[in-house]
Write a structure and sequence with these properties.
The complex is a heterodimer of chains A (245) and B (373). With 245 residues, chain A is an alpha/beta fold. In chain A, 36% of the residues lie in helices and 26% in strands. A six-stranded mixed beta sheet of chain A has the order 6-7-8-3-9-10. Chain B is an alpha/beta fold and 373 residues long. In chain B, helix 6 runs parallel beside helix 9 and helix 11 runs antiparallel to helix 12. Classes of the chains: A alpha/beta (245), B alpha/beta (373). At the A-B interface, helix 2 and helix 3 of A face helix 8 of B.
């Protein structure tokens, strides 16, 4: 399997606090990959570094063959069209309706006709399990779960190869959370996505993830499948996964 | 609150404390007072009897625990009598916590020099950040204005309407009233010298050259500058800006440049309207108070007020607009992830924008006068 994302010896320092001290990981094409760790260990920070929202201080991150520390402006713009990002609270544009939010990347980046865009938007809305009537609501008028679904539809608008999810099930009730897990699995199979997610939700971790990286003490404490995880001696891993066994 | 009591009995150097009823945070302050008044000099044995206590909360447990260590430190033997499991558990919980905790860290109070230096340093960093923002703005402007199709006409038109056209009524009224007031106050003085007609000179020049641009800028700083900060600040908190970046939409192109350009387009138009309304206000006072008919007023206006005054006023517009827009947006981008910071930055943006406009106006004033314009 080809690796889609490679992280090598990444260091991150906030003021004087070292967050990452030499992280290494590999995400293979087609898998659902989880970043797990105690709060404040820098999972979201790593995710933000991979999607070029934040700079890292040393090391290399390679995404779809592009080295992020030396990427040119044009290549960066190209790369951004090949991924979708789902933020924790959705981050839908509050001045646009759900449909306009989903249509935005299509309007900006393609020369498709309005009818065609409407059709694509409707398809994406149904794909993520929203109803067509929700299309004209504003983000402030819909529930948290719907916001996440709408944001997922927007992330999928350009049919990306890579999907980043930042705590996709946090703040959802257990039933919606399981629905969301099923949706993610379904989308991976349907669209052949590679999914990288940050999660705290044990159930969702066991249901969806193929491989995980566990960040603890500024380093990767473990990388591999969930079956092998409990063999590792780490306080976090033992408390987090210990109870399930 | 609750019916609890403390009975102390003292004999043969032995102090026994008999608590009864509910021991909770409501009752312990009274007991504390009782202990403060207690003379323990000759005591060498203390018995705390909790047999009659029906309930103990954590605050009371801490109190008992403190008593224990207080007496132990004085080498007084202490015994706690309690057979209720719940009470013993609560006491044990407090005891264990105390062993494992290292105490709250003391909040360090900064010395005067430290906080003074820090505030200077923060301002310095703030200035650098603003210069950085400025540079980024110019870089993106140049980069994107290479091609005409990169200009986001729709957003610019929207913003011109939002912060320009919709501001017309308030600008018109404010300027009209300022013209009226200035004319009314000067009319009173001019009448004394019989110099009624000079009202036109005075009003025309001051209004066109200074007052109309300044009033417009101040109203717009309050109206649009604050709106820019709040809008962009809120977008930052909800991660909308991050979402834009990951989608490859540069916030500078989508949010910053259209707002700056729109305000720079709208400002001269607004100043033009402010000119008209200000002069109209003066004309009204001249007619009522000084018996200068509108025809005479306009005749005189054409004779004495040169067109350059009008053009100088309009010329300042885009500069003021630029300052207001970039300060508003810069403050919006500075908003951190808390709601307080929106209010703080909005206030700052209005104050700084007005201040910047006045400084800019002063510089223009000196420059133009020295150039003989």
């Amino acid at each position: 399997m080809a690796s889609v994302i490679e992280v090598r010896d990444v260091k991150t320092i906030f003021d004087e606090r070292v967050v990452h001290d030499g992280l290494n990981l590999n995400v293979n094409s087609g898998e659902i990959y989880g970043l797990i760790g105690p709060s404040g260990c820098g999972k979201t920070t790593l995710l933000r570094e991979i999607v070029m929202l934040q700079k890292f201080h040393a090391g290399k991150i390679n995404v779809l063959g592009n080295d992020l520390s030396s990427i040119s402006h044009d290549n960066a713009q190209k790369l951004r069209r090949e991924w979708g990002v789902l933020f924790q609270a959705g981050a839908l544009f509050s001045s646009l309706t759900v449909a306009q939010n989903i249509a935005l990347p299509l309007v900006e980046y393609s020369d498709l006709s309005k009818e065609m865009i409407d059709e694509i938007v409707e398809f994406k809305i149904n794909l993520v399990g929203l109803k067509s009537n929700d299309a004209n609501l504003f983000p402030s008028q819909i529930s948290g779960g719907m916001k996440k679904k709408a944001a997922l539809a927007r992330a999928l608008a350009m049919d990306p190869k890579l999907l980043f999810l930042d705590e996709p099930t946090s703040g959802l009730d257990p039933i919606s959370a399981r629905d969301f897990d099923r949706l993610i699995l379904k989308l991976r199979d349907l669209l052949g996505l590679t999914i990288i997610m940050v999660s705290h939700d044990l159930q969702s971790i066991y249901d969806t993830l193929d491989r995980v990286a566990i960040i603890d003490n500024k380093k990767i404490a473990f990388e591999g499948t969930l079956d092998e995880v409990t063999s590792v001696k780490s306080e976090f891993i033992q408390t987090f996964f210990g109870e399930v066994k | 609150m609750s019916n609890s009591s403390l009975a102390t009995s003292y004999s043969d150097n032995k102090l026994s404390l008999n608590f009864s009823g509910e021991l909770s945070l409501y009752t312990i302050p009274d007991y504390q007072k009782q202990f403060d008044n207690l003379n323990t000099d000759a005591v060498n044995h203390v018995t705390i009897n909790l047999e009659d206590v029906s309930f103990i909360d954590t605050a009371a447990s801490i109190f008992i625990n403190n008593l224990q260590s207080f007496y132990q430190n004085q080498n007084i033997k202490i015994k706690i009598l309690s057979s209720c499991k719940d009470i013993n558990d609560t006491l044990a919980l407090v005891e264990n916590q105390k062993i494992s905790s290292s105490g709250l860290p003391h909040a360090n109070r900064d010395t005067f020099f430290y906080s003074f230096g820090k505030s200077i340093h923060d301002h310095y960093i703030g200035l650098l950040a603003f210069i950085n923002f400025f540079g980024e703005l110019f870089a993106t402007k140049v980069y994107y204005l290479k091609s005409i199709k990169n200009i986001r006409f729709k957003e610019i038109a929207f913003e011109v309407n939002e912060s320009g056209i919709k501001a017309l009524p308030i600008i018109a009224i404010t300027s009209f009233l300022i013209g009226l007031v200035v004319a009314y106050q000067s009319a009173y003085q001019l009448k004394i010298y019989g110099a009624n007609i000079f009202l036109v000179d005075m009003l025309g020049i001051s209004m066109l050259r200074e007052l109309a641009p300044l009033i417009t800028a101040i109203v717009i700083a309050g109206r649009s500058g604050s709106a820019f900060t709040a809008q962009i600040g809120a977008m930052k908190i909800t991660e909308e800006l991050d979402a834009m970046r990951t989608m490859g939409f540069d916030p500078f192109i989508f949010l910053v440049v259209p707002r700056v350009l729109a305000l720079m387009i709208a400002m001269p138009i607004l100043i033009f309207v402010a000119d008209i309304m200000g002069v109209l206000g003066g004309m009204l006072v001249a007619n009522i108070d000084l018996n200068i008919s509108p025809t005479l007023f306009i005749d005189r206006f054409g004779d004495v007020v040169a067109a350059k005054h009008f053009f100088i006023g309009i010329f300042k517009g885009p500069f003021f607009a630029f300052l207001i827009a970039i300060i508003g947006i810069y403050r919006g981008l500075k908003v951190k992830d808390d709601t307080q910071s929106i209010g703080f930055n909005t206030t700052k943006s209005v104050v700084e924008a007005i201040f910047a406009v006045i400084i800019c106006d002063a510089l223009f004033s000196i420059a133009f006068t020295n150039l003989g314009i």
